[in-house]
Amino acid sequence: MAVLAMVASGLGVTTAPPADASIATSLPTVSSGARPGPDVLYAPAPRAPQLENRDDRFRQPYDRVSGTERYADGEYSYTDHLYDDTGAGARLTYPTDQARFAGNAADLVELRMAAEADEVAYRFTLNALVESDTTIVALAFDTDRNAETGSATLPRRPGSPFPGTDAVLTTWGTGAEWSRWNGMTWTSTPVAARVDLEANQITVSVPRTVADPRGSWRATLAVGLHDPGTGGWLRPGAVATTTHPGGANLVDTDPSAIFNLGFRFDEPILRSSAAPDEAQAAALADDAPARFAHDIDFAALDAGVDRTTVPTSGTMVRFLPSRLDRGEGKNLEGFPATLGQLQPYSLYVPTGYDAATPAGFTLDLHSLGENHWQYNGSTGVQQLGEQRSNLVATPHARGEDGWYQHEAEYDVFEVWNDVAAHFALDPDRVALTGYSMGGYGTYRFATLYPDLFGKAMTVVGPPGDGIWVPPAAPTGGIETLTNQWLENVRHIPFLNIAAVLDELVPIAGPTQQNVGAAGPSGLQSFDSLGYRFRFQTFPTAEHLTLALLSYNLPQAVSFFGDSRVVRDPAHVTFGYTPAADDRALGLVHDHAYWVSGVRLADPAVGSPLPEAVVDVHSHATGVGDPTSKRGTATGTTPLPYDEISRTWGPTPTIPKANTLVATLTNVGSATLDARRAGLDPRQNVTLEVSATHAGKVRLVADGKVVEVAINPGTATYTVTRARLASGGHAA
């Protein structure tokens, strides 16, 4: 037995800033040591210029729920959808000059109006605005709400009719005008416009001596690209050039230049898997922008009436301010596809939600080629939400093909953070699921962050990025293969659904992940590890057959239950694989439960990826490992399937001892939190360690750190209570 002499040391103990008080109770908390997940999950809200009121005429905060409006204390706001700017038939493409147009310069975020005694202020917030004069906005009014009067042609023609228009506010950033139809022609009066390129806002002031809106005026809002040469709208051609948009119908001699329409309160995205501009695209293809004409109640605005259409439950499309700076607009050449600071996501809020009673939370990750709206309106989301009293979020993940890595991984945690900031969540009731690529995301998040989730379900999910047919590496790279660190999910039961005839996710990969033998190249499985899982294989199904399970989840509701997270288990198995990290984004997967700061002893050791594995069992609470039993079953819903599973028996008791029993494989260093492991730091602590390499174990208790030098082989180390009280390290 080695008795260690030690001196004070603070190595290995890091504490991130505390979460905002408003979200602290909705996010995971631990008594000490490393928090579950990355720091971004707990980060305070970032500064977001687009969401700031920089003009004292505007005071109300943003409603970040798309397709809604609000009247509040003399202000009106309409919030549009993001990245919904594809014009007629969803065909328009931006000019190829990315530096000027950002592939997104006609994307409306919000219209805001403020009623003052001597003027009405109008503010247009855009998703991207790189230069002052790229965008043109027309707010067309039918003041008498009679389509038979007025003009159908706007003074600066966008190529679409606006029946009944008799007043128009037009701005192109560097200028603005109020135009009035006199029965025969338009007369226009210049009005003041101001551009804020940091906030992507154009603000126009219209004196009441120029226009004095009263009562209810019907309005149509259109956004496009400004043509500095003509002062009008940039008209599209068949193919985009550096200066002109593309996508026009060749037979259309007067193509519409409108990219985005406002006042779209009933886009199909809110009730089905549909792009956020599906109804807009159809209206513009029919040359009918006035299909979205909407009454603005100036009387309510003047009276300071408060009312809103922001829903309190059901499906909503929200957006968040990201902490990442990736530029503006859309990426026309790869991932991430959406660059701007504002990022959308879908959220289902159950009808019984009450902020006084924290709700469970389920992440439902979208598949390859899909987006955050994939599951909107589905029976499955309603089942997950209503029957389990869960909020269900589907992140956009910065595009349809990010494979939940890098910015896509980061976005998922930003979504979780944003939901927690606006709703009361129970951080101990969290579940994770996804279809296809979303199934990979489920494997990835559960294995890299096992102390965040209670249960996980994959539907035709590949264990690695792309196609994986073992023993070969996945097509997306061996560093994406979750099978390499599958040992991390000791405390997360999985339900994995696979199609035997799957042409996109060959059955060999899911089979190895679930029931394959442990073998060369580090291959393992839930079965070989003795972990809890259910592996359902559908003999007659191919990949898309089981898409139905992502929209109607009869197995999921009963499987998930309340999905309780195990936060501080007696037995922790955790493997750290640096190749899975993105350090630049703070996505370092080196901690879980009461184990943190794991580092490799030898960066060349591991097959096929370098990995350090900590397997440590605390005997302090007298809890042993349950027995694992293999089982088989069959079922018929929604199609016949075969099931192989493992369940655990009752948790046994073992003699209590202030002891940690650890196996360290290629571990250069690791930090263990004594209190969370159940140890009593007022007593001597015994470490029984088997190690493949020399390394260090840092035992932390009540802010004190004891550093223990570990030798290769098997040895017992004693950390005295005096050293635990003072801190120190091995001589």
Automatic annotation (TrEMBL):
<feature type="domain" description="Peptidase S9 prolyl oligopeptidase catalytic">
    <location>
        <begin position="410"/>
        <end position="461"/>
    </location>
</feature>
<feature type="region of interest" description="Disordered">
    <location>
        <begin position="619"/>
        <end position="640"/>
    </location>
</feature>
<dbReference type="InterPro" id="IPR001375">
    <property type="entry name" value="Peptidase_S9_cat"/>
</dbReference>
<protein>
    <submittedName>
        <fullName>Prolyl oligopeptidase family serine peptidase</fullName>
    </submittedName>
</protein>
<keyword id="KW-0378">Hydrolase</keyword>
<dbReference type="InterPro" id="IPR029058">
    <property type="entry name" value="AB_hydrolase_fold"/>
</dbReference>
<keyword id="KW-0732">Signal</keyword>
<dbReference type="Pfam" id="PF00326">
    <property type="entry name" value="Peptidase_S9"/>
</dbReference>
<dbReference type="InterPro" id="IPR050955">
    <property type="entry name" value="Plant_Biomass_Hydrol_Est"/>
</dbReference>
